[in-house]
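Issue 218. Parser rejects a valid record. Input:
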Amino acid sequence: MTVLFSDVRDFTSIAEQMPAAALAELINDYLSIMTDIIRQYRGTLDKYIGDAVVAFWGAPLADPLHARNAVAAALAMQAVLPELNRRLAGHGWPALHIGIGINTGSMVVGDLGSRHRRAYTVLGDAVNLASRLQGLSAQYAAGVIIGESTRLAIADWPCRLLDRVVVRGRSASVSIYEPLDG
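Output the parser choked on:
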């Protein structure tokens, strides 16, 4: 399976500057657009965490192109931002910039949680790594960062090697890539 984490950069500063009702309108519009793209590329929306989006590919329906579809969705998410930002500017609202991390690998998928609340979600080292890759996107000035296993799964997709890093919480290093429009 493949998992995607997306986060609006500097959202805390944006939230501080906007009235709550306007912020809610902005985030609802943004999340709707991003979710439409994820669904267009056969992804499953996992959850929203404030301004963050978590989605995965490969469940509940099998998708042999899960990595390719996730990367295509991420690039499409980045591609809609200029138009969205023009609309936001029309309201006098700030532009949004997002960072996305994607990773492919083994993960548990299912109804997980406590006896009080469960959610259909994914769990595992591959998921954690995707989250860490999203966190690196601003540091590398990359809209989308993918891990090695995703890079291998989309071998013919043009990508730029960014670095080899050890992410927080892991002992092994991983090569990170930026997928290019192609």
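Fixed in the parser; the record now loads. The chain is about 40% helix and 30% strand.
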